[in-house]
Fold this protein.
Amino acid sequence: MSWDNAEYERVLGTRRFGREVVFLEEVDSTNRWLLENEGRFYLAGATVVANHQTVGRGRRGRRWQDVAGKSLLFSVLLRPDKDSAPLGFLPLISGVAVAESICRLCACSAERLRLKWPNDILVDGCKVGGILAESVSMGERVCVVVGIGINLTQTEEELPRDTRQAISSLHLLSLQPSSRESLLAKILEELEGLYDLFRESRVDEMKRRWSSFAQSRGTAVAVETDSGVARGSYEGIGDQGQLILRDQSSVTRELYSGEILSEARNG
């Protein structure tokens, strides 16, 4: 599947996000490439898209595997200032941008789509996409790249096996955007507006938008952290983007990193 830049420019409705774009047929990692080449770009939201990543990465050191031409793989460059909201919100609002775009372009009801803290996009309980945000300090400023991968047209045989989470593609779930170009353009349009909220430190609005796709409060969850597995009930996210967990003794914990392993509705 080739990249149609004319189609992409025709449907792109942003002021700055994605206006500087590079398409690479193959690269080890779009995040790595964009971090090393950030000086080439002037606008917030500069974007690099790849047809295939040879060393795609997920969170906690995992590999992100793709089949050439069958995924949407891209990274977005952000340079937040010190008055912006906490950086922990960048992967969260990126997830919101993906979720809202899939709902609108694929006629997917919001009830089918869920965001799993901090970076997974699920449809019907199956993972179809993931997000990896990485930051580098450059003197007085911080440079952040947000990498996003979405499974589009893979068959069951082409998807990796993962014992932690069922994995699928939009095609297998009968959700198909008209093109990679239209989906990327829509995600960038949604992300541009959400990034404005981030820059204005509108934390409550970002939390509300993310929570509309999250599990219900009171859901029992197990979260893998660097110090072990934490269990309790999900109580939302905090003002730093952290997960708020209430354990069986009603003690509240705030988790800034980790991965939700499982969940089950209490009661």
The longest helix spans residues 180-199. Residues 5-211 form a domain with the BirA Bifunctional Protein; domain 2 fold (CATH 3.30.930.10).
